Description:
This is L,D-transpeptidase family protein. The chain has three helices and twelve strands.
Amino acid sequence: xxxxxxxxxxxxxxxxxxxxxxxxxxxxxxxxxxxxxxxxxxxxxxxxxxxxxxxxxxxxxxxxxxxxxxxxxxxxxxxxxxxxxxxxxxxxxxxxxxxxxxxxxxxxxxxxxxxxxxxxxxxxxxxxxxxxxxxxxxxxxxxxxxxxxxxxxxxxxxxxxxxx
Length: 164
């Protein structure tokens, strides 16, 4: 997959967001100096497929507290979700699923799907009464059965568009 460098990003931040190492990014991109990257530069992220080759995409509406799963541009299913609260809002933007962890423990329920923004993901919950509310630390919470279904369908590299 290709990441386009945005203002304020460093190679270290890009590596963290995609859960890889600076050395892997240096190697995959023939970059000599990790301190010299520029806005608009194309960075190959090793180990992730091109999202355009994946038939699925996810759209998240923060205000509607809904996650919509699309396949080939057509709505396949909608899920109720919980989103971030005012002091820890859900980030808006375009991300991809970079990895996953079944049964991560604690409040994260039955599955964790990491987004390409460090510390954020789509996950289950040990508090199903929170679904439909703005109560999380910024992550997207789903019922455990829903996040397991979603994770069984979408591969790493799937586009996730989060909108207000």
